[in-house]
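lol ok so funny story. i was supposed to be doing the assay writeup but got distracted and ended up predicting the structure for this chain instead. priorities right. anyway since i did it might as well share w the group, maybe its usefull for someone
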Amino acid sequence: MHPRGRGRLVAAFAISLTLHALIGLAWLNSHGQASGTAAAVNVNVDGPEDNEVAFVLRDRPADPIPNLRPAPTQPATPAPPAILPESVLSPSKSGPGAVAPVSASPATPSPLPKFGGAKALHGRPKPGTTVVYVLDRSASMGPDGLLRRAANIIRASLAELTPDTRFQIVAYNAGATSLAPEPLAATPGAMELADRWLAALTAEGGSKHPAGFREALTARPDELFLLTDADDLEESDVRAIAALIRTPVRVSAAVFGGNRPATATPLERLVGKWNGSVRYVGP
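and the output, tada:
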C-alpha cells in the first residue's frame, strides 16, 4: 500500500474511535443526571386545591366472617289447654250431655243393699253396743233358700250399724264357726268381709243349737239374734242354752219357713226370759 493511503486509514480509524468514545461519555453523563434527578424528587404531596378533585385508592375491605355460633334456642311454648265442651263448662240441668254434680262422700259408711227386700232385725244400736248374729246353717235351712234369706237379713242388719258399734257372726250346724276371732268394728271393710263370708256358707249337716250359742256368748254380746228354722229346737235345748247365759244379754230370734204356731214354743219362752222377741219370716 502507498504510505500516504495508509496514513489516511489510520487517521480515519482514530477519528471514529474518538467519536464513539465521546458518544459513550455523553450517554453515561445523561444517565447519571437522570438518576440524580430521580433521587431528588420531592415525595411530599400537597392536598388538593378547592377546585381540584382527588381520588384516593384504598384496599378492598375484607369480607366479614360469618357468625358460626348457634342461634339461641327458644323455650318450648306449652300447648294451649284443650277446650272443654260447653256441656262440661256450663252443664245443663237436664237433657242429653248434662253433667250431674257429684257430692262429697258421706262421713259414715253407706248401708249395704237390701238384698231381696230383706228387713233388718233391729234399728241403730247405741254406741259401744256389741251385736252377735247366730245363724243356723244345717241341712234344713237349704230348701226354699232359707239360708240365703237369713244371710240377706243379716246384711240388712249390718247396714244399721255404725263404726262405734261392734259385731260378730256365728254360723253353726253340728259345730260352730265365727267370722273373726273377736268382734269387729262396723267399718265398711268389715262389712265387705262379712258379705263374702256369708256368701260362702252352705246348708248341710245336723243342728246343735247350744253349740252356736256357746260360741256366740264368748263375744260377750249386748244383743244376740238367732236365725233358724227351729224345726228341731226342743225343751232340752232351751234349758242347755239358758244354762250358758251368765251375763245380761237381750236374746231375739227370727224363724224362717213357717207361720207363727198356735201355742208358745220353747224358743219363744227362751227369748221371753231375756227380754227379746221372735219374728217369723214366712215362705
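The first strand starts at residue 130 and ends at 136. The beta strands are 130-136, 166-172, 176-178, 184-185, 223-228, 250-256, 278-281.
back to the writeup now i swear
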